[in-house]
Amino acid sequence: MGTPADRIWARPGAQPSLCMRSFGVVGLAALGLLAAIHASFAADRVRVAITAGLADAPIIVAKERGYFAQENIELEPVVFASAAQAIVPLASKELDVAGGAVSAALYNAIERGVNLKAVAGRSHTSPGIPYITVFIRKDHIDSGRFKTLADLKGMKFAIIAPGIAVHALFEAMLKKADLKPSDVEIAYLDYPQQSVALKTGGIDATFMGEPYATSLVAENLGVRFMNTDEIISNYVITVFIYGDTLLKDRPQVGQRFMKALLRGIRDYNDVLDDKGLMVRAADDIIKAFQREFKVDPHALRTVYSHSVDPNGKINLTSVEADFEYLKGAKLISGKVSPNALIDTSFVDKAVAELGPYQRKP
């Protein structure tokens, strides 16, 4: 039968009354207003590339404590072995944010005109905190095969991915041991693959990060031989990278994301002691990490963490050292520079909004 209005319009020559016409206009306007109100409250989805390591801690904390929800942001995490693999989807707008190492792929994308920026520090080393260590297979230590860095000669050393800045750390380590890159075989494996390779004898050594190193030491499979901060001090391990979707298309969303992220960074910094241990972590953080990393809660409090800057700063000296390596190895083309990579405007504004960092007692 249809509605009364349908039946009126269905009769030849019939016209709706002024009252009916007014009702239709007002009804449509009301529906439009409701749709606009709903849209204004709908959460902005942000697709985040993560590397499934402890460096994702600030994002996990910010999500667990509702900081992204308070900024009307819904996270969609996408796991990658390294940020280098996220550059293409970030450039093609399939991703909004990536967290990972500065890489040749990142510089080369910027050189080609792709709008990508490192917007905040994500993780770095600190003196006395063994977050990223020169990690040696336990049987090599026990047998005496490995005693000094010079014993890396002839060994297979694992690095997460080719063309990433950690190669600068690798070459600095070899220089310290008076070795050449050709003296060591490189295997490109992500952390889970490295863990398996250490168990099976597929690799001999690596730069192992947490929480994997703690688990491997507990299993008696490896030894933290040297803190990488002894090779390059305050080394920038990873940064947060924005793509064009947040830099240009939705900068207001990018700003809200940064504000929530910085709150997560500060909360995470609060739970770390001077040894980089999460002895001060509240139960909600431990439970969140247990869920994400599948690690025993007690073990989490024994995991050495990376350092985070509570104001999101990036150590430019470290970035420049990596850049010189990538350029010298002819992995970077064109005239791109670290200045073209870094944009601190988002984190600077977030710091201004949140105020000076005060470590919680």
What's the total number of strands?
Answer: 10
Total discrete domains = 3
Low-confidence stretches: 1-28, 33-40
Terminal-residue CA separation: 71 Å
Strand residue percentage: 15-25%
Q: Percent helix among the residues?
A: 40-55%
Q: What is the H level of CATH, i.e. the homologous superfamily of the largest domain?
A: Periplasmic binding protein-like II
The CATH architecture of the largest domain: 3-Layer(aba) Sandwich
The count of helical stretches stands at 17
For the biggest sheet, the summary is: 5 strands, mixed
Order of helix and strand elements from N to C terminus: HHEHHEHEHEEHEHEHEHEEHHHHHHH
What does this structure look like?
The structure is a single chain. This protein has 361 residues and is of the alpha/beta class. The chain folds into three domains: 4-41; 44-126 and 235-354, 3-Layer(aba) Sandwich (D-Maltodextrin-Binding Protein, domain 2), CATH 3.40.190.10; 133-230, Periplasmic binding protein-like II (D-Maltodextrin-Binding Protein, domain 2), CATH 3.40.190. It contains 17 helices and ten strands. The chain has helices spanning 4-10, 18-41, 57-64, 67-70, 87-91, 104-111, 138-143, 166-176, 191-200, 212-218, 244-249, 251-271, 283-293, 297-300, 316-328, 338-341, 345-354; strands at residues 44-50, 73-79, 97-100, 117-124, 133-137, 156-159, 185-188, 205-208, 222-227, 236-242. The strands form two sheets. Strands 2-1-3-10-4 form a five-stranded mixed sheet. A five-stranded mixed sheet has the order 7-6-8-5-9. Strand 6, helix 8 and strand 7 (185-188) form a beta-alpha-beta unit. Helix 3 (57-64) packs across helix 13 (283-293), helix 8 (166-176) crosses helix 15 (316-328) and helix 12 (251-271) crosses helix 17 (345-354). Residues 1-28 and 33-40 have low confidence and may be disordered.
